[in-house]
Specification:
- This protein is α+β, with helices and mostly antiparallel strands.
- The chain contains three helices and five strands, in the order βαααββββ.
- A hairpin with a 2-residue loop joins strand 2 and strand 3 (62-72).
- Helix 1 (9-29) runs antiparallel to helix 2 (34-46).
- The longest helix is centred in the first third of the chain and has 21 residues, at 9-29.
């Protein structure tokens, strides 16, 4: 079974916020490939949702609301998503693992 993965407006806003943070970190550290590597890691891991969204951990009482852990360096990111029927997944939010829960 194949799932279409779409990003909600909130998820896109989260990615812009994370991108701004990564650019700041890149400038501070002189690691100018940092944002590109982070985006590549996020894209690579989101592919899991195209075929195996049910393997991700459940969030709360709704069995269709789940989290995808995206490893990156010593930490990583978490994508909150919901399975919408048999063929669609909506990513609702992204956060860095060291952020306070933002969703």
């Amino acid at each position: 079974m194949s799932f279409a993965v779409r990003l909600t407006r909130g998820a896109l806003e989260d990615l812009r916020r994370l991108e701004d943070f990564l650019v700041e970190q890149a400038l501070e550290r002189g690691d100018f490939d940092l944002p590109v590597r982070a985006v590549d890691a996020i894209r690579r891991e989101l592919r899991v949702l195209e075929t195996n969204p049910y393997t991700c951990r459940k969030v709360g009482s709704n069995p269709l609301e789940r989290e995808l852990v995206i490893p990156f360096g010593a930490t990583g990111y978490v994508a909150l998503f919901e399975i919408l029927g048999d063929h669609e997944v909506a990513v609702c939010a992204f956060r860095h693992q060291r952020e306070d829960d933002c969703y």
